[in-house]
């Protein structure tokens, strides 16, 4: 299979039909373009986010407690799915980027758990799944759905994918207007490391906010330098991103047919408020408890 990615065709999981608007497909175009070019640097870049470690712990615990079919949308390089597989769980991992899935496969082979992973190159806005017991979209990936139409599409697709009583878990940060205004267009160091040879890798984030639209343009700059300080390579990768209002989540959940099972203000189960650092949601499809 292409890049070692396997596709699922058993157990009736991919038997649901779906219709998706053209605007919702912007998601996969944005994600593919960015993550295809960032697959080599994704892990050092992402690990600079304060939610990186606690989000992994949260979704690992959620996956271990779940029964039945487990799907992760935005599986990336596999940091959560591979940990779950190492603990005995089988996981279906979906991603729009083939290079990210290839990196996930290499990591799974190195960990000796590839037999517990099914990796699928798919557009999240065209899931067409059925009978899933737990579907997760971890680590703020929901922010890549940058329009209300795209967010409604993914909620609808997830609801159709879940079995009766199935759960949908995702997270985002709670938008802080004051922080955003202070950091608008200001480069933010996300990663810096020096190899044994003295060469260095530096990754910067720069955000430009469109406050009325509820979104921002993110520029990720990756720079590699030689031991003498000479810049060997510099690349810029950009993508749009949207923050998420809790009121919109509740409206979408109700409209699509979800019940809000829980919403936390952090990955440790803290109470949610407008000043929480995070919003961590667990929605349940009507049916069995």
TrEMBL record:
Source organism's superkingdom? Bacteria
This chain's protein is named Methyltransferase family protein
Q: Which UniProt keywords apply?
A: Methyltransferase, Transferase
What lineage, starting at the top, does this entry show?
A: Bacteria, Pseudomonadati, Pseudomonadota, Gammaproteobacteria, Chromatiales
Transmembrane stretches in the record are none
Give GO MF terms, alphabetically: methyltransferase activity
Q: Which Pfam families match?
A: Methyltransf_25 (PF13649)
| Domain Methyltransferase, residue spans | 71-166
Q: Name one GO biological process term.
A: methylation
Q: Which organism is it from?
A: Marichromatium gracile
Q: Cite the InterPro entries for this sequence.
A: Methyltransf_25, SAM-dependent_MTases_sf
């Amino acid at each position: 299979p292409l890049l070692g990615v396997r596709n699922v065709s058993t157990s009736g999981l991919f038997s649901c039909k779906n219709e998706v608007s053209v605007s919702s497909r912007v998601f996969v175009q944005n994600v593919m373009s960015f993550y295809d070019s960032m697959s080599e640097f994704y892990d050092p870049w992402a690990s600079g986010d304060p939610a990186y470690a606690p989000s992994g712990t949260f979704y690992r615990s959620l996956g271990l407690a779940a029964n039945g079919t487990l799907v992760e949308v935005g599986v990336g390089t596999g940091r959560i799915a591979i940990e779950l597989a190492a603990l005995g769980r089988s996981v279906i991992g979906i991603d729009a980027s083939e290079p990210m899935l290839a990196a996930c496969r290499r990591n799974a082979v190195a960990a000796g758990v590839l037999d517990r992973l099914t990796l699928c190159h798919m557009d999240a806005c065209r899931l067409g799944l059925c009978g899933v017991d737990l579907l997760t979209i971890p680590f703020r990936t929901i922010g890549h759905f940058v329009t209300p139409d795209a967010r409604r599409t993914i909620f609808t697709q997830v609801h159709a994918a879940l079995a009766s009583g199935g759960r949908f878990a995702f997270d985002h940060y709670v938008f802080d207007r004051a922080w955003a205004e202070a950091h608008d267009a200001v480069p933010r160091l996300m990663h810096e490391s020096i190899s044994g040879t003295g060469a260095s890798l530096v990754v910067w984030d720069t955000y430009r906010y469109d406050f009325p639209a509820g979104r921002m343009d993110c520029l990720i700059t990756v720079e590699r330098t030689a031991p003498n300080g000479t810049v060997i390579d510099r690349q810029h990768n950009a993508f749009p991103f949207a923050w998420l209002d809790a009121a919109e989540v509740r409206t979408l959940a109700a409209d699509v047919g979800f019940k809000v099972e829980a919403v936390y203000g952090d990955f440790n189960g803290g109470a949610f408020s407008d000043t929480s650092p995070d919003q961590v949601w667990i929605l349940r499809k009507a049916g069995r408890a």
